[in-house]
Amino acid sequence: MKDGERTGRPKEVVIDKNIKKIHKMILNDRKLKLNGISGTLKIFTQHVHHIIHEYLGMRKLCAKWVPRELTFDQKQRRIDDSV
């Protein structure tokens, strides 16, 4: 037995296309919320959370998404931008 093709969303949402879209959205606006991203891409918030934390290696810091491990130059740039 085989299932025929059907319309609708694919079961797998953790794909390169979605990862790239989420990364681009975060780089454009680091203050985005998970609900905003999931509403735009029409995928579950849990999937967005998983992609951001596991695939992009980012976390929320002071209401902004930042990489978990910043280089010295990135840290310095953040300090210079906040002044």
TrEMBL record:
Domain of life: Eukaryota
PANTHER family on file: MARINER MOS1 TRANSPOSASE-LIKE PROTEIN (PTHR46060:SF1)
Name of this protein: Uncharacterized protein
Annotated organism of origin: Rhynchophorus ferrugineus (Red palm weevil)
